[in-house]
């Protein structure tokens, strides 16, 4: 590798310490406004960068990759999910693609567990009562949510985050069930007392809570279609902290409208940052603005992971978090 510092273009503001380190190590170009780059700015960025550091708010599709300059060598994503990147096109053009797995696992699992608790125990509704001064005194039948202990949680996608959620769920007395492309090891199943379902539809129709924790791919697009939503039991709580595209959001809004679900907790949306209006302002729907990895620690660790990947590449080695199409 040449002694010239790599031109590393960041599409968004990252934590201060990450940006400072990037400036020390690379010819780093920061986005000081923090507004997402529009298409023209993104095209300009891939025309001058050696390394692009995008986030989920950038669409890195085949067309953009085709417009990149000869010098672009690497796309070092700030985030674990790479569904906004056409990895096949990038790798086909000889680019290295990396992500930041592992460092946001516990935080995202915390958020999924928080949504399960918030929806089942009506925490947001209760907080609104207090904020609006509507608490008129305790009554035996008012604001009753649903018990968690002993209920069945079905986790769709038993990767790192799914497993981290299962550990938390066990502590709350939930029975863990899961569906995954591949069955996890017997040791993990035993640790989590997790029951594997080969057939997703069968699992869905028997759960009390369903949490989506799988990546967005062509195969998982609208995994929760109108038909699948109809398979859920009417008392089910549906949680999504993975990707909005996993759910047909219009179908979900209709199901909520017809009281076909007891509650919903969403941190991600099909057309982010837009949210289907039918889901807004519903007492049994808790919506969060994509906060899964939003802790100071996780965002710092994600930045450190990006730096590690770029440094390793700069030193002529294989970056630890390389993503190849076969992994998706
Ligand atoms: C990130 C996420 O904040 O890492 C992911 O895949 O969904 C988020 O928690 C976001 O992707 C940053 O690019």
From TrEMBL:
Family matches, as SUPFAM superfamilies: Formate/glycerate dehydrogenase catalytic domain-like, NAD(P)-binding Rossmann-fold domains
Matches recorded under InterPro entries: D-isomer_2-hydroxyacid_DH, D-isomer_2_OHA_DH_cat_dom, D-isomer_DH_CS1, D-isomer_DH_NAD-bd, NAD(P)-bd_dom_sf
EC number(s) per entry: 1.1.1.-
Pfam families with a match to the protein in the record: 2-Hacid_dh (PF00389), 2-Hacid_dh_C (PF02826)
Keyword Oxidoreductase part of the UniProt annotation: yes
Ranges for domain D-isomer specific 2-hydroxyacid dehydrogenase catalytic: 17-323
Listed PROSITE patterns: D_2_HYDROXYACID_DH_1
Keywords for this protein: Oxidoreductase
CDD domains the record matches: GDH
Residue ranges of every copy of the D-isomer specific 2-hydroxyacid dehydrogenase NAD-binding domain listed in the record: 113-292
Enzyme class label: oxidoreductase
MF terms (GO), sorted A to Z: oxidoreductase activity
This protein's record includes keyword Oxidoreductase: yes
PANTHER family, A to Z: 2-HYDROXYACID DEHYDROGENASE-RELATED, GLYOXYLATE_HYDROXYPYRUVATE REDUCTASE B
Family statement: Belongs to the D-isomer specific 2-hydroxyacid dehydrogenase family.
Name this protein carries in UniProt: 2-hydroxyacid dehydrogenase
